[in-house]
Amino acid sequence: MNACEQLLRNLENREATVGVMGLGYVGLPLAVEVARSGYRALGFDVSMRVVEGINAGQSHIQDISSEIVAAFVGEGLLSATSEEGRLGGCDAISICVPTPLSKTKDPDLSYVVAASEAVAATLRPGQLVILESTTYPGTTRDVMLPILEAGGLRVGKDFFLCFSPERVDPGNPVWHTRNTPKVLGGVTPACLEAGLALYGAVFDTIVPVESAEAAELVKVYENTFRMINIALANELAQACDRLNVDVWGVIEAAATKPFGFMKFTPGPGLGGHCIPLDPHYLSWKMRTLAFRTRMIELASEINAEMPGFVVGKVVDALNRAKKAVNGSRVLILGVAYKRDIDDLRESPALEVMQMLQEKGAAVSYHDPFCPQIRDDGHTALEGLPMRSRELSDELLREMDAVVLVTDHTTVDYARVAQHATLVVDTRGVMRGTPEGASVVGLSGEGRPGRNDSLAPAGGAVDWSRVVAGAADSQVAGFG
Q1: Dihedral-angle region of residue 373 (phi above 0 means left; psi in -120 to 50 means alpha; beta otherwise)
Q2: What spatial distance separates the first Cα and last Cα of the chain, rounded to whole Å?
Q3: With contact defined as beta carbons under 8 Å apart, do 402 and 331 qualify?
Q4: Domain boundaries in the chain?
Q5: Comparing 3-210 with 258-465, is the CATH topology the same?
Q6: How far apart are CA 50 and CA 253, in angstroms?
Q7: What is the C-alpha to C-alpha distance for residues 43 and 124, in angstroms, rounded to an integer?
Q8: Which of 51, 268, 279, 343 is most buried, most CB within 10 Å of its CB?
Q9: E strands within 370-446?
Q10: How far apart are CA 271 and CA 125, in angstroms?
Q11: CATH superfamily of domain region 3-210
């Protein structure tokens, strides 16, 4: 029985041990699904806090409950270690380590290289290695493969190497690790066969592609698509601001077209590990091939302008109230990079806060999911660590401005409108507020030419009222 046949038998019989390197927002959910599928999942992490927590049945990831972790630990299907020497005992290894960008937006593959070297140190015939970390096309073959083959074993014969991009969407109640279709590409056909044998048992749907490079490109294309369309929505918001038009009303009306349109919305800037970073992997790779990805560069520039645009709206709103931003008390409402999660990575709120501090504002924040902003060496804010303040009526009244950056669903926005003096709403959730605070949006608020009677409190235009007042032939003519 050759190495591939032995691996396939172990996978089929659920006798395999699957290692997961990196137990963050990608790795821990993957390890849980591996255990749920009946394999022994062995997690590897450099943080002893994480390792000890998992072995004690505690989860540090919002989307994974401690009850689930404790159950699989109790069944002997999930454990964690920091000892890289135990990689040799794994039949398959999934690598889920960070792939950040440098200050010049060049890919930093140091974590991938370190993980590959750790695997290579104990690599044995019959092992399957899958990289999940987002990266540029060519990383698996050009960076990982030479490291793994340096000991004399050959890919597709002695061991197997694939790329399968993570598609985790933190806080998504519908799409999670198991039911999100999983793209998979192998360095050789035998590698793909081995990858399918494992991931076919862990995920509901596998989408095989022609190569590891194709799989790598799928991930960066997905998030480049989103980044460019968000940039278009952000540029539309800036255009609407100059045209005295409510951008949210325009987008909602456009979204009524049942074909040829996909809704994207503007905001204070991009956040998270994927959309702000992934397109630059492709951009960097193409520069090495003397090709400019001009849409990526332009979209990145537009999105990067949004925190400054928001700060400009705050400054203008305070000026209209005859207040200077210097010395004003400003409350940031929501600092996570998206609603209802506790993730601060690349959050535009941090840049908004920094810019306001640089202008002399006294900045504080409230976020029910992020109780503290720690000094991680990368966050250029004054007064760290900074703690979330209780959202009391008194706090709202004492603020010169409230800036709604992240629209958590647990916040009572009617209460905010009732007690705050001025709100800058970057998410459009307080449109049509009937009374209380002066609400300034990304565009068009407080200017002539709008029909606010169509926008009820809570935001969305009541299109049934529009359609009810028009003849059928007129509605059909919307085009």
Answers
A1: beta
A2: 64
A3: yes
A4: 3-210, 258-465
A5: yes
A6: 47
A7: 19
A8: 268
A9: 372-373, 386-387, 401-404, 422-425, 438-440
A10: 41
A11: NAD(P)-binding Rossmann-like Domain (3.40.50.720)
The pLDDT of residue 5 is: 85
CB atoms within 10 A of CB 1: 9
Largest CA distance in the chain: 82
Fold of 258-465: Rossmann fold (3.40.50)
pLDDT for position 104: 80
Please tell me the distance from the alpha carbon of residue 82 to that of residue 101, in angstroms, as a whole number: 25
Strands 182-186 and 160-163: antiparallel
Enumerate the β-bridge partners of residue 4: none
Rounded Cα distance between 352 and 335, Å, is: 10
DSSP 40-96: EEEEE-S-HHHHHHHHTT---STTS-HHHHHHHHHTTSEEEE--GGGGGG-SEEEE-
User: What's the one-letter identity of residue 389?
Assistant: R
Q: Say how far apart CA 315 and CA 356 lie, in whole Å.
A: 9
3-state secondary structure of 153: coil
Measure the CA–CA gap between 58 and 55, rounded to whole angstroms.
Answer: 7
Q: Active-site residue numbers?
A: 274
Round to whole Å and give the CA distance between 426 and 442. Answer: 6
Helix (H, G, I), strand (E, B) or coil at 130: strand
Q: Cα(315)–Cα(330) distance, rounded to whole angstroms?
A: 11
Determine the distance from the C-alpha atom of residue 289 to the mean position of all C-alpha atoms in its chain, rounded to a whole number.
28
pLDDT tens track for 177-186: 999 999 999 9
Show the low-confidence residues of the chain (pLDDT under 70).
433-437, 445-479
Residue 440: beta bridge partners? 424
Nearest alpha-carbon partner for 60 in 90, 34, 42, 80: 80
What is the rounded CA–CA span in Å between residue 278 and residue 224?
7
- Residues with Cβ < 8 Å from 377, sequence gap 6 or more? none
